[in-house]
Design brief:
The chain is an alpha+beta fold. The chain has one domain. It has two helices and five strands. The protein has a five-stranded antiparallel sheet. The longest helix is centred in the C-terminal third of the chain and has 9 residues. It is globular, with a radius of gyration of 12 Å. It starts with 8 loop residues before the first strand and ends in a 6-residue tail after the last helix.
Length: about 90
Amino acid sequence: MRNILARVCFPLAHKNKIMKSHYTDWDHRYGIYLDDGWFYVYRSHVLLNHFQMSSDKGKYYFITRTQKSEAMQAGEDSLLEGFMQRDSIF
């Protein structure tokens, strides 16, 4: 899967925000959680994508590896949606 967020750098505060698990509800349909070094994006109990982040000397973080699940809904859009709805990460 093409990494559509490859050129986006996240400061430490945003990485920490991403690391916290999020509930899902009507307004927040996508969730992100961390497990064994991978961040997982899910919706309605369906795993859609997973990715890893690496650091540039601990100051900024980048998404380095992205993979999609075999779910029909998985793809670049679901990865981006997972980030966009999380309280203004961008």
